[in-house]
Amino acid sequence: MSEDRLITVAIHTYEHAVQLKNLLESEGVPVVLHNVNLSHPVVSSGVRVRIKEADLPLALRIIENTEIFTRPDTPASTAKKVFVVPIDFSPHSTNACDIAFHLAQRHKASIKLLHAYLDPYVTTESQLNDSMTYDVANAELHEELDSESKKLMKEFSDKLRQRIKLSELPAVKFTTEVAEGVPEEVIVEYAKENSPEMIIMGTRGTDTKERQLIGSVTAEVLDSCRRPVFTVPESVTLNRIADISHVVFFCNLDQEDLLALDALYRLFSEERLDVTIVHVPSKKGTRNAEAAFDKLMGYCAEHYPRFNFKAAHVSLPGIVDDFKAIEQQQRVDLIAVPNKKKNIFARLFNPSLAHRLLFHSDIPMMVIPV
How confident is the model at residue 285 (pLDDT cuts 50, 70, 90)? Predict the structure, then answer.
């Protein structure tokens, strides 16, 4: 077979054939239209859309996912479930997209790529001068920042579409949004208004995170957002759900543990996972903690049959070190942490376990608000 041999990939009316031709050629697939009534092309029927045989796999990939390659970036998605991926166009944003697209495909959801940019002038000065007139120079700076952010978003989106076209990513519909504001505030506000299924965020390595203990966008989102957050460290390559086989789940032996376990079970709706349940003792202590833990293990075995459960314990002063010991004994693919809401002063003086693990572990983490 000759790779240059033309084959018919579709037969349409003239109008639809031209639309398909434009779409395929915009993605690098040459197209020839056959059986066109040259004297009255607009009334032609049965127009053949023909391509080179070598281009067939790529053309079919595009045709099967027309919405992804033709839809504009900005309209809101019509899918009921949405996974939000905050991005800053860095490699760890790409890491987050890898797992987000696979999760979205599994749960028949769409993706919202969200980028926030901060106008440095707004953070330091008022946008009005003494005579209450708008500063033209700063207006131009603002417009430049907005334009550059949208340009970067388009380039990032085009790369994702190219990866979808090459079957490197699942064919998941996605939209984009660029907003001005403090990134963590933009993310939390978006979550409040739209209730996404989950927020999936790329994070830096522990060395970098420890140097940025104050002001971490991910940490602020973990502490403030009331939607599940899935973090993906830049040092981890997590491309598929199947890459996750062992989860460490931290529990407090209270009712909220069951809500978090339900969320974990729903997320991994088709996987058979090994789940190590780690009891985190409270400062006040838990009456009959051993009996309560045994009861929880029994409940898990009965209600979550796809998961294989085992137990582990940590001490209160050395939770992070004890977890590292667990990690050394066996590979841990994901940390799952129920996260109770705290006020700003409590977060400042007594950071949550999720907050602490974020800065001391390079393992993906699912933080579940309870």
Answer: low
CA distance 253 to 284: 13
Report CA-CA distances (Å) from 235 to 95, 138, 203.
9, 38, 9
For the chain, give the mean pLDDT.
Answer: 83
What would the mean pLDDT of 346-367 be, rounded to a whole number? 80
Return d(Cα 24, Cα 264) in angstroms, integer.
40
Start-to-end CA distance of the chain, whole Å, equals 60
Measured CA angle at 336 (ends 334, 337), to 5 deg = 145
Contacts of 287 (CB under 8 A, 6+ apart): none
> Per DSSP, what are the bridge partners of residue 203?
233
| CA 314 – CA 27 distance, rounded (Å) | 54
β-strand partners of 200: 230
Q: Average pLDDT of 249-273?
A: 90
Query: What's the pTM value of the predicted model, to 2 decimals?
Result: 0.78
